[in-house]
Amino acid sequence: MADNLTPAQRSYTMSRVRSTDTTPELVVRRLSYALGYRHRLHRRDLPGTPDLVYPCRRKAIFVHGCFWHGHGCSRDRTPASNRTYWNAKRRRNKERDRRNQARLRALGWKVLLIWECELRNRERLRKRIISFLGEKPACGSAIYHRAIW
Ligand SMILES: [Zn+2]
Fold first, then answer.
1. Given pLDDT bands bounded at 50, 70 and 90, which one contains residue 5?
2. Cα-to-centroid distance, 88 and ligand 1 (Å)
3. Is residue 13's pLDDT more than 80?
4. Ligand 1 centroid to 66 CA: how many Å?
5. Cβ neighbour number for residue 85 with a 10 Å cutoff
6. Using CB atoms within 10 A of its CB, is residue 116 exposed (0-12), middle (13-18) or buried (19+)?
7. How far apart are CA 135 and CA 120, in angstroms?
8. Distance from C-alpha of 123 to C-alpha of 119, rounded to nearest angstrom
9. Rounded distance from Cα 145 to ligand 1 centre (Å)
10. Ligand 1 mean position to 25 CA, how many Å?
11. Helical axes 122-133 vs 23-34, angle rounded to 10°
């Protein structure tokens, strides 16, 4: 994809990749871990390679950057130049996301989408994760073992 980009576009792309695709996922991973849930990362055998996977619960979480995945919130602003390029790209991402989530659900998985902008309210995010995964950490999680001690 990089071949037909100007240097400015490329550096813009790279900055978005760093700020939207890496950090938010780390935040969610740390939170999930701190809550006592044990996840696997990026299971490639599942549609869309979910960011966090909880195999024994058959649940998966995607952490989406608002720009790349076209959230439509205030963080999701198309750069002034090459709007057509970015919009087409993001439309493709959105379509792919929808397809992958539908496939995952068809395989019996439950899916939670977390948007980058939702990380601003950590308390609400914490509650969303707990209500999605269930109150009690299960499947031999660390909290379960700690409770025994
Ligand atoms: Zn957003």
1. low
2. 18
3. no
4. 4
5. 14
6. buried
7. 22
8. 9
9. 36
10. 14
11. 60
Ligand 1 centre from 136 Cα, in Å? 29
pLDDT above 50: residue 1:
no
Those residues with Cβ within 8 angstroms of residue 58's Cβ, 6 or more apart along the chain or in another chain: 108, 109, 110
pTM: 0.75
Tell how far the Cα of 84 is from the centroid of ligand 1, in angstroms: 20
Structure tokens at 48: 């869309």
- Residue 146's pLDDT is 43
Distance 118 CA to ligand 1 centre (A): 7
Q: What pLDDT does 80 receive?
A: 77
Give kind and range of the element (H or E) at residue 145: helix 142-148
* Å from CA of 75 to ligand 1 middle: 6
pLDDT in tens, 121-131: 999 999 999 99
Separation of alpha carbons 133 and 9, rounded Å: 39
